[in-house]
Amino acid sequence: MRIDVTFTPGELKAYLANSDRNHRRLIVIIDVLRATTTIITALKNKAIWVLPVLAPEEAFEMKKVYGDAILAGERDGEKIDGFDLGNSPFEFTEEVVAGRGIIQSTTNGTVNIRYAMGYGEVIICSFININAVRRFCLDYNADILVACSGRYNIMCLEDAVCAGILVEGIIEQSDCYRYEMDSVIISMHLYDECRNEILGMLKKSQHGRYLTSLGYGRDLEFSAKVDSTDIVPYIADDRVVIGLQ
Ligand code: 3SL
Fold first, then answer.
1. pLDDT by residue (tens digit) across 9-32?
2. How many whole angstroms separate alpha carbon 233 and alpha carbon 236?
């Protein structure tokens, strides 16, 4: 079996364009800052589903269908006009999201999720659930594509490091996986550079610095909490959900 890494939604699209839709594969979506961290947090706090959409206009259309749903998302890191929530995991408390569906549109993360849908089993990963995702991957026992979301279609450090932890853990624990893509090697090297310094790496990253400049510094601390949960959200019927706990 193979394990591959893509760094941007554009790379994911190109990768999938050259592949068989029916091939059995697991696609692991990563957007550490902040979409996948936020999705995992919302579902952990008992949101019933997250519907990823590409654009705010699509979100408003979906809201007509799901009247009780929360509209959430960002552009340039800030809440979209007319939406209920932005994209900080601190906004997705149990009081706010329990029992509700969430329609979410973000700049990179939800785009990456949407590109992956229909090409295999899709699961949601961040530092906060990384070991649960590793176990899920090993149990799933199929080709794995780790799809980082990047930033405006350019590779970003934090997603690549997160991919590196995951790939290293899988390769160390199973000799069934082979890798060919340089992106796999790059992600493991990047992780090697900053193991045990995840928060420091987030603070140094371009998007981490940007979020800090907007006043979201504590989102970096939240996102750096490796293994703070063991839920593994997955896509079912076009929505992100978790199984019964
Ligand atoms: O691009 C995205 O999907 C977001 O996670 C970016 S932000 O951290 O909310 O600005």
1. 999 999 999 899 999 999 999 999
2. 10
